[in-house]
Design a protein that fits this description.
The chain has about 525 residues and is mainly α. The chain has 25 helices and no strands. Helix content is about 55%, strand content about 0%.
């Protein structure tokens, strides 16, 4: 697990950072009730979990309690997988920021940003950084980060963050349990539950784990007893009964899926031979379908969703696209076929075949919004090929979207206004480059006459760098929807906090990917 997570972190860094009222909105509402949770406790106004906001009391007009922290106690909120020297983010990322406000910014962050910004956001969630000044050693921000990773489908990264924090609380165990269910490690999760006496398994989780361990008789007895005393709803009892003895229900309709579906629900439906499609479930569930247990089409579609989200490395989709010959045509089959034809042509070294195969596969990658993963896979191979015409133009854009953008830009002899501007962006020197359109002018302004958003400047002045970066990402995302001032201000703000490389990559993606509202 550790080696794979390091690979995922490398993937994030390679294409990303060089380096409601009351409480925060819910990031996830689909956690399995696998263990009993502790009674509510006073947390100084900060929710223990972002999916369980505190109930408002009558003390709203009172001042916030003073936060205290033991100076020599390590804080769970400082735990991360990426050191500052690697992430490019400062160790005092949160500075004078408060846990509640940071949490609200993280939870409310949109999930549809450009690839470079998505990877920057993932890096923020995984970065080692000093805990907020009011952290108090509770680990509230850590749990917010883990929940956001789960919401984004970054299951292995979330699992590694939980492990790094040495979890002992029921809330963190619930998250680790669900990750194990969705990644096919349910037996290990059940073993950990059995080995932790302080964890009180809920009835469905206990029955599931008893059955997984082969103790069917005890599982059946537990089910019957819990049903008799009303610990299970009729739907839960019906589903678990089918899980323990499917032959008794042959020919009968399968119980309707609950809403929301939890990972434990999903696993039980899978076990009875009625897996629930993941395309309408939260992104994290897609992870369960990239295993060989799923059909090839389902595997590809799940991997496309996760690759598009930046949470699995591009070589996963490479392996799936090329695993076998497409079984039909249309949609995912056409993407796999185009991908296979291009890879075969590239391996042949035949320029004519490559020139013929590149435009169709690029069109299919644009269709699936997988241009950047494609560039990560093939940008280096295309750099030195003497292609011409349409293939040459595509190869240039692929190269500029890849980690080899600087090499591509320095080797270029750009022709045309757009190409000159793109090469200048890659190198960060816009001298003599004329923006080709209104978006280009908004981008150019950020590099020539930077202008910070008022909120961003306020956060920087208040030593709240992490929140300022989130404002930058949100400003650019707003710009993609038509507010070009947001593009200028967001890119300017990224540059002001030292994320020059991210600003350049974002600018290139804005121009090349055309993610415009």
């Amino acid at each position: 697990m550790r080696n794979r997570v390091l690979g995922l972190v490398a993937c994030i860094l390679g294409t990303g950072a060089a380096a409601q009222e009351g409480g925060p909105l819910s990031a996830i509402d689909w956690l399995s009730q696998s263990v009993a949770t502790p009674a509510a406790q006073d947390t100084g106004g900060v929710p223990i979990a972002i999916d369980e906001p505190p109930v408002a009391d009558q003390g709203g007009a009172l001042p916030e309690p003073v936060a205290t922290t033991s100076l020599d106690a390590p804080s769970p909120d400082a735990v991360g997988l990426i050191a500052p020297a690697v992430s490019g983010l400062p160790r005092d990322l949160w500075g004078a920021g408060l846990t509640r406000e940071i949490s609200e910014a993280l939870v409310g962050h949109p999930d549809d940003a450009l690839p470079a910004l998505r990877q920057l956001f993932l890096t923020i969630l995984l970065a080692e950084a000093q805990a907020p000044v009011d952290a108090g050693g509770r680990g509230d921000l850590l749990q917010v980060r883990i929940d956001k990773l789960l919401a984004l489908g970054a299951l292995e990264q979330a699992a590694a963050l939980i492990e790094a924090a040495s979890p002992t609380s029921p809330e963190l165990f619930r998250r680790a349990f669900d990750v194990s269910l969705l990644t096919g490690a349910e037996d290990r999760a059940c073993e950990k539950m059995a080995a932790a006496p302080h964890l009180a398994p809920t009835v469905p989780a206990r029955i599931f784990c008893l059955a997984r361990s082969g103790d069917w008789d005890t599982a059946a007895l537990t089910l019957h007893s819990a049903t008799a005393i009303g610990q299970l709803s009729a739907d839960q009892a019906a589903l678990l009964s089918r899980f323990l003895d499917p032959d008794l229900f042959e020919g009968e309709p399968v119980p309707a899926a609950p809403s929301p579906v939890t990972p434990l629900d999903w696993k039980i439906y899978e076990a009875i031979g009625e897996p629930l499609p993941t395309d309408r479930l939260p992104l994290a569930f897609s992870y369960a379908e990239i295993s060989p247990k799923a059909g090839w089409k389902a595997q590809i579609e799940a991997a496309e969703r996760l690759t598009r989200g930046g949470t699995i490395p591009p070589n996963v989709i490479l392996g799936l696209y090329t695993e076998r010959a497409p079984a039909a045509s249309g949609g995912v089959w056409d993407r796999a076929a185009a991908f296979q034809r291009f890879e075969t042509a590239l391996n042949s070294g035949d320029l004519a075949r490559i020139s013929t195969a590149l435009p169709p596969v690029w069109a299919k990658m644009q269709e699936a919004e997988l241009e950047v993963p494609f560039a990560v896979l093939f940008g280096k191979a295309l750099v030195d090929l003497p292609l011409e015409g349409e293939a040459s133009d595509i190869a240039l854009r692929v190269g500029l979207l890849s980690p080899y953008r600087d090499t591509v830009a320095t080797r270029l002899q750009p022709e045309g206004q757009v190409e000159v501007f793109l090469a200048a962006l890659a190198l960060g020197d816009l001298t003599g480059a004329v923006p080709p359109d209104s978006l280009g002018r908004a981008i150019s302004a950020a590099f020539r006459t930077p202008r910070l958003p008022a909120r961003g400047q306020e956060l920087l002045d208040g030593n709240r760098t992490g929140e300022a970066i989130l404002v930058a990402i949100d400003s650019i995302s707003r710009g993609v929807q038509g507010d070009l001032n947001g593009v200028t201000e967001g890119l300017s703000l990224l540059r002001a906090v030292g994320l020059e490389g991210v600003a350049r990559r974002t600018a290139l993606e804005l121009m090349i990917l055309e993610r415009r509202g």
